[in-house]
Amino acid sequence: MFHKILVAYDGSKGAERALDKAIEMARLTGAELVVLTVYRHHSMLEASLSMVRGAVERGRNLDSAMRDVAREAADFAKQRALTAGHDKVKAFIRTGQPARTIIATGREKGCDLIVVGSRGLGATEGYLLGSVSHKVTGLADCPVMVV
Amino acid sequence: MFHKILVAYDGSKGAERALDKAIEMARLTGAELVVLTVYRHHSMLEASLSMVRGAVERGRNLDSAMRDVAREAADFAKQRALTAGHDKVKAFIRTGQPARTIIATGREKGCDLIVVGSRGLGATEGYLLGSVSHKVTGLADCPVMVV
Fold first, then answer.
1. What domains lie within chain A, and their CATH numbers?
2. pTM here?
């Protein structure tokens, strides 16, 4: 019923639950699993906020560190799928606004299900604040499972 | 991976897509399917807004008509599951605020997945207006699939 499942994984506990459900769904349906870790790009912000020498360089270092953390998270998620016996799995990292990047990557890869973690905040708070999961369900053109 | 799946069905096109995904999920996992149609209770509102004789009676008639429509929708959904070859299906109707009634029924029946239709409105509109599906994903304590 699903052929390609995108799961957004950022290393949080909520994302880990989503990852495990996505792995189960992928195994059950025989779907390919696409792991996506989104990280924020900070260089330009840092550079524009500071006139001191080295700001751009520090921004680059920060970006590089964030990219490394994202890579590590994505690799962890991929390994988890492999350990669970599902080898149709690829892991990607992307930089950008989380919800829009998740949607864009899902479209680009031709995914027909997106799995995301809920905020983990109780009930109303999550709804009022507007979480990544709410944005994804609002923007997606395929089914979205919020775990 | 899921044992009891609740699908909210109100007769709309979006709910029909959700219903079909829920039936597929139920067949795939062997889960029981719980169809829920929520309708609004109008008698008290009608009665409180009007001092004219007969308002309560008219309210009762309106309720009765809405209940009949809900019953028909729930039965249609159940029949669709049966036709698809899934006989572990029950259909219920409830009155109340849609999102909260969906959540409460899911808890009461011990469901471990809730399937709802998205608003069908494009992207941002749906997100900003806050649909039933957004409320359900914000309030649920089990995974929610928005179709």
1. 4-146 (3.40.50.620)
2. 0.87
